[in-house]
Amino acid sequence: MSYYGGTVTVAGRNLITSLMAGKTIEFTRIMVGSGAMPEGVEPIDMVALVTPVAEGVSSVPTVENGVLSMVVEYRNDLNGGLQEGFWLREFGVFAKTEDTEEILLYYATLGDSPQPVNAYKDNRIDIRRYPISIALELDADVQITYNPGAFITSAEAEELVRTMVQEAISGVGTAIIKDITIPHTGWTWQEENPGEQGAWDMDEYRYYVDVPVTEAAETQFPNVALHKAALETAKNAGLCPTVQTLAGALRFWAKRSPDEDMEATIALVSPGASSSGGGGGSTYVLPVATATRLGGVKIGKGISVAADGTITASTSGVSPDDMASTEDTESMLDEVFPSEDENP
Question: Does the reported pTM lie above 0.85?
Answer without folding.
Answer: no
